[in-house]
Amino acid sequence: MDDHSQFRLLSERRFLPLFLTQFSGAFNDNLFRNILLLLITYATGGLLGLPIDVVVNMAAFLFILPFFLFSGIAGQLADKYEKSRVIRWVKLAEIAIMALAGVGLWYGWYESLLLLLFLMGVQSTFFGPVKYAILPQVLEDDELVGGNALVEMGTFVAILAGTIAAGLLMGSDQPEKLAAVGVLALAVLGYLAARKVPVTGQTHSEMTVSLRPLQETWHLMRLAAENHSVLLCIMAISWFWFLGAAYLTQFPSFAQTDLMGDETVVTLLLATFTIGIALGSMACERLSGHRIELGIVPIGSLGISLFGLDLYFNMPANPVPTDWWMILSDSQYRQVAIDLLGIGFFGGLFIVPLYAFVQKETPEAWRARVIAALNVFNALFMVVSAIMGILMLGVIGLSIPEFFLVLSIMNLVIAGFVYQQVPDFALRFIVWVLSHTIYRVRHEGLHRIPEEGPVLLVCNHVTYMDALVIAGAVRRPVRFVMDYQIFRTPILGAIFRLAKTIPIGSRNRVPDIYNAAFERIDEELDAGHVVCIFPEGGLTTDGEVATFRSGVDIILERRPVPVVPMALRGLWGSFFSHCGGPALRHFPRRFWSRIELLAGEPVPGQKASAEALEQEVKNLRGNSR
């Protein structure tokens, strides 16, 4: 375990109490909800004279209804008041609700327990926004993915643990009394952990809290829609919950009907799916390199669909009665478990970077309200998921494997739409794949690039892949300035257009393109973006750094922004360089080669010049080509 491992956060006071607080809350929610449904199903045989199926769906509706009604108020409170204080309020409310629930369980007052299930939904509604909104305040930027991964892992493990614990309690002599003690004890433990959550010290006390639930929910949706990229990430997260709810809801019938399994098979399917999500969440930290990496989101969505398709095509043709051991030991049934593990794993890869992106890209002043909007959309998508399941399975008459096939195909279609709407996903995916297949990139000094505000990057130019290497390493989106003729290359041209690259050409041959390029550069810098230029004006033909042209002086004369000199090492000799002949036309000699990207100290725009920057880049590059 290295110093950057996300697991080290579990030993730090700024994160561990929050993790334990949310874990105990998720565990308690699922223990209470599942033990209640099991007691109603097996101990009473019904409730209020209604069939079991109706009661189960009513319970699900009562738990999810508060997310529609109160998310607006929850987001406001989390933004207005100090967040650790809000967390303690919420956990105190959980103790009160669980004390009443304990009495109801002890004496078998099941009708009142449905009301308390609604109140637990209210409590979860108020905890959700503050739980996610506090993360960027207690974690560093390079810890945000790891922190979100731990939260997601903890949530799904708690869901699994609560579900299994409810099943185990039902096997005891007095499940009601044990459950009564258990839910209250968990609520108390959650509050004790909440008391240790660090104080953030940030409040917006001037904000007025509106107590109009439905109007505030509508306002939340409009607030989320203000940032198009954030809105689409919210939609993508909610789509994950749509898929997750669709799979989890069908597991009992799927196990019984299509696998002819006993109750242990249901538990195994749930455990496999949940463990997959936990493992995928944990893998995000390593695959993303401790940063918010949207490039692994398309990998996640593709994996969800591929394993979903594989599940459909590998269903046992003639199932025989099974238990959990047969699912694991028989190759035909084991493939079903492997596919569910894969769907969960890639679901974890899919969701964690999206949560981190929403937190990072949302201003702190209304971050909790945007998270609250996300919770509204999650709840809405899960309701639609249930309705779709009823229509597909009950009205249209699809089998559960056919329903899973439809979900896999829908996922591909919706993912394609989202990635077309937010090109950053597709671009980051391409960059991630290239930087993890063709090259092994080591970078140094990139922390010297300012976190915000306009900045100009200048770098030596060795290959056609330089821009993608830099884009994959620099945390901020970069606008590159490149020869307009590169856009004629079918694949690279499409990638660079996607990256909003600024085309430039000779002042003598294409004056219009030349002048338009400097206008675009100035506009991008004026908007506070990062612009990268290769002042040599073309790829090196001998591996050495050529003379920097005057374009950099023209840019800085118009807008003297900070300049960060950068140098690429190890790219000379690759398929994309001019070593041994024109680039892209000679035999690729080096794949998976180790390359380096180094950044120097920022130079004030007023003091920078083409000549001085050329020397800085040469010093950084040294003798390594």
Automatic annotation (TrEMBL):
Listed Gene3D superfamilies: MFS general substrate transporter like domains
InterPro entries from the UniProt entry: MFS, MFS_trans_sf, Plipid/glycerol_acylTrfase
Residue ranges occupied by any Phospholipid/glycerol acyltransferase domain in the UniProt entry: 455-571
Spans traversing the lipid bilayer: 31-52, 58-77, 89-107, 113-135, 147-171, 177-194, 230-249, 264-284, 296-315, 335-358, 370-397, 403-419
Protein origin, superkingdom: Bacteria
SUPFAM superfamilies tied to this protein: Glycerol-3-phosphate (1)-acyltransferase, MFS general substrate transporter
Protein name, UniProt field: MFS transporter
UniProt organism field: Marinobacter azerbaijanicus
